[in-house]
Amino acid sequence: MTEWWQILAVLVAGLSAGFLNAVVGSGTLITFPTLLALGVPPVTANMSNTVGLAPGGFSAVLAGRRDLSGQRRRVITLGTASLLGGIVGALLLLWLPAEVFSYAVPPLIAVGCILVVAQPHLVKRTAARRKTGRPPIMPPVVAAALTWWAVLGAGVYGGYFGAAQGVIVIGVLGLTLQETLPRLNVVKNVLTLLVNGVAALIFIAVRPIDWLIAGLIAGGAIIGAQIGGRVGRRLPSVVYRSIIVTVGVVAIGNEVWKLARG
């Protein structure tokens, strides 16, 4: 990847991903297909993308840190689940044959796109329940246990692939916790940062990373996260959801075509 337009494409993809991750998650559905389109091998693209997006996740947490007030215990408890899940997912990516990941890419991207489309419905249901003052769906102890295990599962998924991980987490938190959505969103940002961070450290330790790609994504994601954390919610969500789904569908078609060619 030496052409100026390729470098610009990765930088813009990183900026877009940082913006999206700060607002709804799913930034990987922009950067990962972009890398695939530029000819980067799937596993290398996934690992370099994870390393590059980690600084953007930290930037998103800083942008929304005010909403973390009073949530220290929750973040620590759920953070252990995210760390464990991220470790397991990263190790699965390293241990399983590269062919497994190549075949898994189309359905994983499809799952991510479906979750992006479904998220507004989950958010609307959660907001409606809180607005009417209805009681929690389940007893607090059961909700706490379910949330922890669900966050662990999301961490495994995030460590292995990562696309729409944030959507999964915000959906889980919204259904099981009685909290406002902005406060849940910043918790989501912390949890996904932990997953991406621990996975990135593992990848750096055991496999070669394309540092040009990781650096470009990181630079763009840091700026994008700051923009998303401050102004992202003012934009119509249908705009960036449409972009995510369009990019995802094109990526699925491209990968299926490559697999069919053998």
How would you characterize the overall build of this protein?
The protein is mostly helical and 262 residues long. It has one domain. Helices cover 82% and strands 0% of the residues. It has ten helices and no strands. The longest helix is centred in the middle third of the chain and has 34 residues, at 98-131.
Write a short abstract of this structure:
The chain contains ten helices and no strands. The protein is an all-alpha fold.
Number of domains: 1
- Outline type: globular
Average pLDDT taken over every residue:
82
**Largest sheet, strands/sense/barrel:** none
Please give the alpha-carbon distance between the first and last residues: 24 Å
| Number of alpha- plus pi-helical segments | 10
Tally of DSSP β-strands: 0
Helix amount, in percent? over 70%
Percent of residues in β-strands: under 5%
Uncertain parts = none
List the helices and strands and how they pair.
Elements: H1 4-23, H2 28-37, H3 42-63, H4 72-95, H5 98-131, H6 140-160, H7 165-176, H8 181-206, H9 211-231, H10 237-261
Helix pairs in contact: 1-2, 1-3, 1-9, 2-3, 2-10, 3-8, 3-9, 4-6, 4-8, 5-7, 5-10, 6-7, 6-8, 7-8
Highlighted features:
mainly alpha, single chain, 262 residues
